Amino acid sequence: MMEVRFPCKTNIIAALAQNCKTQPCNSIVGLSKTQGRVNLYVITSRAPDDKRIYDFCKWNVEAVHHRLLHEGKMSITFKSPSHLVMISGAEPKNLEVVIKVLYDRGSYSKKFEEILKPEFLRKVQAPKSDVKSMSIQLISQYPAPTGVGFPKTLINLSIQHLKYRHVDNRICALEYLQSLTLSDNQLKKLPWCLWQMKSLLSLDVSNNKIFDIPKDIPKSSNLCRNIQCLNLSFNELQEFPLFLKHCQSLNTLKIGGNPIKFIPNSFKTCSQTLRVLDIQRCKLMNLPSCLTHFSLNELTFDGNPFPPPVDNNASSKTAIYKGTCGMSFRIGLDSLQASCVKSILRHKVHIPSDSVPELVLSYINSAQFCDGCFKLVMENSIVYYYPAKVEKFARAYTRLYKNHPVIPGFVCSNRCFKRVTAGKKVIPASLLFKKSS
Fold first, then answer.
1. What mean pLDDT, rounded, does the chain reach?
2. Burial environment of residue 128 by CB neighbours within 10 A (0 to 12, 13 to 18, 19 or more)
């Protein structure tokens, strides 16, 4: 089967209803050849759930009127069954293809094969659609599953306030979609097909019930490479999404309103592109240390349970030895896992994740750099806290009048601790967490 098709508007009138007035509707007119028979078919669609197909044989053509061909108009009269097909809004070159086939009363098979050659098919224009944006806020506006569906040329799509529980797979098939808004629904998970959308630059899934995002999202996925604006605020995320460290083009991140307690240091890989960060109304006890690598235009962190300011007469001015589990101990020799991780990172050894124990991987994610000598620091390091000078890494930020955020610092020795904290107000970790509790 061979075919040629093009978009236009048609008005089909049957012989018994010539006095009935109907309006032209969006259609697709095509020519097809099956088993040596050439047919002209018309697919009309007046509504998403009203799709009709008319099939006419070439030998039933009674007359063709093409005086207004230069205006993209033509009418064809068929007999047995008797119909009048009026075409408008078409490309004149496409109508020339139809006329060439319908007027050929001889060896139509060879002529039709000539039309299907590449040099002739360039005259047949691809379907055009001026629908670039669509906003859906009522169930009646949503495309029916058996209808035409979403326009393939959509660039901006917004679906809000519909109690939407699952993302429609037809949305993931939109090749040119750049902005997708699914806020104020009831989504709980995001489908895998969403990460493979080729052109998506902005995604807004705020005010939903998303509680989990897959941790094994590949770095090479299209969304990780292209996403620039991501809004995950006011969901039910318990952990900071790990795939964000792979988003090298991320410019705006809004993740506030989630019960997140910790932001990993690996997030600093986005420091070159990220300019807007919203982490308000989370459960952060302190600002993440990776923020010192950023140069933000806007930072919002209000509504977090930051501890109250420490009294200036605090008696402790020494380093606090504190591990990640809350236990205090002195700096000693690195554990076997810590030594292994340092060797891997120092020599940039590429080791597949399936050949490395899970404990070693956890050490890699928790590895820091010493603020004094910039060497790798592991868990058994001094951890100290000092009030954050937010103006160093953000131009505009939230100003808190009661509780001030703090940033943890990491050093590898007492010597680096004295070098870093010279002239700084250091907050003892024990006093900090004692007052905050």
1. 76
2. exposed
